Amino acid sequence: MTSTAPILAEDNETAPGRMECGVCWYVYDPAVGDDVWQIEPGVAFHDLPAHWQCPTCDAKMSSFMPLSGERQHADAEDDIARIVAIYRRIDLERMQDLPFRNDALQVEAVGFCDWHGDRLGVIISPWFINLVLVPGADTDWSVYRHGDKVQYVFPAGRYDFVHGDLEDFGFIQSCSLMSPVGDVQDQDTARLIGEEVMRLMMIEADPSDDDRGTPLLSAVAEPEATTPKTQQPISRRELLRGRRIPSSEET
Q1: Rg, C-alpha atoms of the chain
Q2: Pair type for strands 129-134 and 64-66
Q3: Cβ(224)–Cβ(249) under 8 Å?
Q4: Which of 31, 42, 57, 84 is such that its CA lies 20 to 30 A from the CA of 142?
């Protein structure tokens, strides 16, 4: 299936809300922080450390939900916070000893913005970097089955997303940028990859580009500041197709 929905501007008026523990009803308020864990006021729920737990009952971050009554539908930023918390829990509980895990990376959400009522952005983890769609309040993905491919049209072209059901959250759709992520040097590099992919996805593709319609499979790029001057600059099309910039030892 193909969506031709337009790209919408990012909603900067939506602020992360309060999160309530589903076990003991403790409320984490970003405006207050958490004295028990020495969290200063102003730290959003999705920015809490991966090992953070409810200061009252030790429940994990995945047990928290947007505070009942504050919104009819989970706040968009709270949805992203829950996804980050779930992947952090998966990392801590299942991924630590796996050989393809990159210890230099941690779970982080990058560049999420509104897209036709849904949220589009990049999720970084120690084992993948994915472009992710999160459904909005009026989006019905019940027609899809786990593993179904859904094609969307962006300014950069048509890309395939895989429909899935994230444990303790619900439906999300993902487009793989890179997996595994062993070539990514550090978190700053991963973040720059995510930011650059989001920027390029919103740029109109050249109609003569033969790659228009090709699924976005991977994207790896070193930060410009660390790229040797002798290298040829990477193009927009090469980044979206997944060309890896060689290291200085390879040039």
Answers
A1: 19
A2: unpaired
A3: no
A4: 84
- Fold designation for 2-11+100-241: Yope Regulator; Chain: A, (3.30.1460)
First to last CA, the chain: 42
179 Rama sector, left if φ>0, alpha if ψ -120 to 50, beta otherwise: beta
- For the stretch 175-187, pLDDT in tens is 999 999 999 999 9
C-alpha neighbours within 13 Å on the C-beta side of residue 92: 14
* Residue corresponding to tokens 């980044």: 239
- Contacting residues for 188 by C-beta, under 8 A, at least 6 apart: 223
Neighbouring C-beta atoms of residue 199, cutoff 10 Å = 13
Please give the single-letter amino acid code of residue 16. P
Which single residue is written with the structure tokens 């959003």? 44
Residue range 38-93, pLDDT digits in tens: 999 999 888 888 889 999 999 888 788 776 544 434 467 778 988 999 999 999 99
Q: How far apart are CA 211 and CA 206, in angstroms?
A: 9
Whether 178 contacts 220, CB under 8 Å: yes
Per the CB < 8 A criterion, the answer to whether 102 and 180 are in contact is yes
Q: Which two tokens stand for residue 136?
A: 């909005």
Beta bridge partners of 157: 154
- ∠ CA(22), CA(26), CA(28), 5° rounding? 105
According to DSSP, the residues that pair with 1 across neighbouring strands are: none
- Cβ neighbours around 117 below 10 Å, total: 13
d(CA 65, CA 22): 7
d(CA 126, CA 105): 5
Amino acid at 132: V
